[in-house]
Design a protein that fits this description.
mainly alpha; 2 domains; about 75% helix; elongated
């Protein structure tokens, strides 16, 4: 399940329940919490849009760079490294096995590609874009 604004609001409301006994003050604090989290999310979206449209590769290119690094690391780990070891053994000149990369590459890749079930969650809720 994804962690979003609704989850942050629910966590904040649990804290409000413990520290704000007055129902009127609690309702006001709840609304302020919701408004501030929604405003924060909208501001972050605007920052993302500005960043993505920037002319400089160092500003707009960090997401693609992470994608290329992840892709290159996965290619090294699962394509090139095994091929080098296999070919070197096949020609009779074995080379030391290259180091293994961290398994967190898969987590990075699935997060970047959106394979975390979020698309299915959006479709189930009926909010998925066409």
């Amino acid at each position: 399940m994804a962690f979003g604004i609704d989850d942050a609001i629910a966590a904040g409301l649990k804290i409000l329940d413990k520290f704000v006994p007055d129902p009127t003050a609690k309702a006001k604090a709840e609304q302020e919490l919701r408004d501030s989290l929604i405003a924060w999310d909208k501001n972050q979206t605007e920052v993302n849009k500005t960043e993505a449209g920037h002319a400089s590769l160092f500003v707009a290119g960090w997401r693609p760079w992470i994608g290329w690094v992840c892709g290159a690391a996965l290619a090294f780990q699962f394509v090139f490294s095994p091929l080098v070891v296999w070919l070197s053994a096949a020609i009779g000149y074995p080379v030391p096995t290259p180091p293994k990369l961290d398994d967190s590459l898969w987590q990075l890749m699935t997060g970047m590609l959106g394979i975390a079930g979020l698309r299915t969650y959006e479709k189930m809720k009926g909010v998925a874009a066409k």
